[in-house]
Amino acid sequence: MSARSLRHYEDEGLIVPSRFSNGFRDYCQSTIDRVLVIRSLLESGLPVRLISQALPRPTDGSDAGTDAVCAEFLHEVQSYRDRLAARIAVLSDQRAALDAYLRKARRTDRRTGP
User: Fold this and answer.
1) Transmembrane stretches, by residue range (predicted)?
2) Which residues have a Cβ under 8 Å from the Cβ of 65 and sit 6 or more positions away?
């Protein structure tokens, strides 16, 4: 995990690391666990905007709240998944139409070829 990514998560309010007396960030185990959840959600295709709106907010660096997934967040994830499935269906239909066009064009080309 890059420092830049961690700072971005902090800027988005996704994590709240505690600080040492010298100002350095201290990433406790619960914050590290939360970062792993965030990375997993990002890799699943969820945008940071949705994650930051729906994931329970941490209050400090000691309790990141990764164990308690609220029902609202699950609803948002399901809704995002449903929109994604609808887009996939549209793309699949478009691919099928292009495949049909190419098959027809190839048959026509063979009949009129050299």
Assistant:
1) none
2) 34, 56, 57, 58, 59
List the one residue out of 9, 4, 21, 2 whose CA is nearest residue 64.
9
Measured distance CA(47)–CA(44) in Å, rounded: 9
Contact 64, 56 (CB under 8 A): no
Query: Strand 25-26 to strand 18-19: parallel, antiparallel, or no bridges (unpaired)?
Result: antiparallel
pLDDT band at 113 (very low <50, low <70, confident <90, very high): low
DSSP structural state of residue 22: T
DSSP 17: -
> How large is the average pLDDT for residues 5-18?
91
The C-alpha angle with vertex 17 and arms to 7 and 59, in degrees rounded to 5, equals 115
Domain span at 61: 3-112
pTM as predicted? 0.60
- The SS3 call for residue 18 is strand
Structural domains of the chain, count:
1
pLDDT for res 48: 87
